[in-house]
């Protein structure tokens, strides 16, 4: 089992000089806590917080690693935080103050005028650790955060997986798959697209049903069951449901899973849809986005434009008239006359 650790990091603050600390612990820390076994380098796994800044800036979440070492003072730890922020690798250094309670740490942020009280509440040192952090700003605002750190985003303990999915996943999560190098560009962060107006139409692209689709997908791409994977990300994806002949939205954790995992509904449909979709009724779905798409009308034998609501519906929706006609075998009037002459 890979070693796992939760560090004492709160996304709302940076770590500077210490201030006053409440005398009574707010949480029970890990029994027989052993600090020496937690020193070293560890990786971000998951986080949740009611900090307003973090909830507002979820797309700016920090992912990376943190290294804790003994300092010259017996009462503090040196911290080196290497993180990827919006695609750029950065380093922050600071210190944690030890307390009389083993497993309880303290730091202060001058920038945010905040005191942070952190507790290692669960750990077995070799597999996981979970930390709860209480932050109080000078003007009285209080927030609570939970952090889980580990080495890579692989298979955590079952109870940790359950805990995070119930307590953390529903709120926020970030993960990292490798070290970043300070000053270097990291992987391009997910693009935050502006919310489209409800009357906006999808771009009309003249293409066949299979154009520009990945060529390395296996047979399971359209038949495997929906799989979120073991990691704790929150990525909107689509999977094909062969029974409903439709692509359904789900939240992907960010690692593993299977090939029935598409970034867009369009990619999903154009990869997995069968000719049987042409016999389905036009279904705009329950949403109100009013996107202009095309569907095959079995009664007239022609492809007609319709307004798609933007969610649900079925596989009888195409992104251009040409795509619909090619897929459903529609013969245009002019083509029919040409065939009769010949």
Automatic annotation (TrEMBL):
<feature type="region of interest" description="Disordered">
    <location>
        <begin position="179"/>
        <end position="210"/>
    </location>
</feature>
<dbReference type="InterPro" id="IPR029856">
    <property type="entry name" value="AMBP"/>
</dbReference>
<keyword id="KW-0732">Signal</keyword>
<keyword id="KW-0677">Repeat</keyword>
<feature type="signal peptide">
    <location>
        <begin position="1"/>
        <end position="18"/>
    </location>
</feature>
<feature type="domain" description="BPTI/Kunitz inhibitor">
    <location>
        <begin position="278"/>
        <end position="328"/>
    </location>
</feature>
<keyword id="KW-0157">Chromophore</keyword>
<dbReference type="InterPro" id="IPR020901">
    <property type="entry name" value="Prtase_inh_Kunz-CS"/>
</dbReference>
<dbReference type="InterPro" id="IPR012674">
    <property type="entry name" value="Calycin"/>
</dbReference>
<dbReference type="GO" id="GO:0005576">
    <property type="term" value="C:extracellular region"/>
</dbReference>
<feature type="domain" description="BPTI/Kunitz inhibitor">
    <location>
        <begin position="222"/>
        <end position="272"/>
    </location>
</feature>
<dbReference type="InterPro" id="IPR036880">
    <property type="entry name" value="Kunitz_BPTI_sf"/>
</dbReference>
<comment type="similarity">
    <text>In the N-terminal section; belongs to the calycin superfamily. Lipocalin family.</text>
</comment>
<keyword id="KW-0964">Secreted</keyword>
<keyword id="KW-0646">Protease inhibitor</keyword>
<dbReference type="InterPro" id="IPR002223">
    <property type="entry name" value="Kunitz_BPTI"/>
</dbReference>
<dbReference type="InterPro" id="IPR002968">
    <property type="entry name" value="A1-microglobln"/>
</dbReference>
<keyword id="KW-0722">Serine protease inhibitor</keyword>
<dbReference type="Pfam" id="PF00061">
    <property type="entry name" value="Lipocalin"/>
</dbReference>
<keyword id="KW-1015">Disulfide bond</keyword>
<keyword id="KW-0165">Cleavage on pair of basic residues</keyword>
<dbReference type="Pfam" id="PF00014">
    <property type="entry name" value="Kunitz_BPTI"/>
</dbReference>
<protein>
    <recommendedName>
        <fullName>Protein AMBP</fullName>
    </recommendedName>
</protein>
<dbReference type="GO" id="GO:0004867">
    <property type="term" value="F:serine-type endopeptidase inhibitor activity"/>
</dbReference>
<dbReference type="InterPro" id="IPR000566">
    <property type="entry name" value="Lipocln_cytosolic_FA-bd_dom"/>
</dbReference>
<keyword id="KW-0325">Glycoprotein</keyword>
């Amino acid at each position: 089992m890979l070693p796992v650790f939760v560090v004492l990091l709160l996304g709302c603050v940076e770590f500077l000089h210490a201030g006053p600390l409440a005398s009574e612990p707010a949480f029970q820390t890990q029994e027989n806590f052993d600090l020496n076994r937690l020193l070293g380098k560890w990786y971000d796994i998951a986080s949740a917080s009611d900090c307003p800044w973090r909830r507002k800036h979820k797309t700016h979440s920090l992912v990376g690693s943190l290294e804790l070492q003994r300092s010259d003072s017996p009462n503090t730890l040196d911290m080196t935080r290497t993180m990827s922020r919006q695609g750029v690798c950065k380093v922050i250094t600071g210190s944690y103050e030890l307390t009389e309670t083993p497993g309880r740490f303290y730091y202060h942020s001058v920038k945010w005028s905040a005191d942070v009280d952190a507790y290692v509440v669960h750990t077995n040192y070799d597999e996981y650790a979970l930390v709860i952090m209480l932050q109080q700003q000078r003007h009285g605002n209080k927030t609570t955060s939970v952090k889980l750190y580990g080495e890579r985003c692989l298979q955590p303990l079952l109870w940790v997986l359950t805990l995070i999915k119930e307590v953390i996943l529903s709120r926020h999560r970030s993960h990292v798959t490798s070290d970043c190098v300070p000053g270097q560009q990291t992987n391009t962060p997910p693009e935050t697209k502006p919310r489209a107006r409800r009357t906006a139409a999808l771009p009309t692209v003249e293409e066949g049903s299979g154009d520009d689709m990945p060529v390395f997908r296996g047979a399971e791409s359209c038949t495997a069951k929906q799989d979120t994977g073991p990691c704790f990300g929150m990525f909107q994806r689509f999977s094909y449901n062969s029974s409903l002949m439709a692509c359904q939205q789900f939240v992907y954790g960010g690692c593993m899973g299977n090939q029935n995992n598409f970034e867009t509904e369009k990619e999903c449909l154009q990869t997995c849809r069968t000719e049987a979709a042409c016999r389905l009724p036009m279904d705009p779905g329950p949403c109100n986005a009013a996107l202009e798409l095309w569907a095959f009308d079995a009664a007239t034998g022609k492809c007609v434009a319709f307004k798609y609501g933007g969610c649900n519906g079925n596989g009888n929706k195409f992104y251009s008239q040409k795509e619909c006609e090619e897929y459903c075998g529609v013969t245009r009037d002019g083509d029919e006359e040409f065939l009769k002459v010949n």
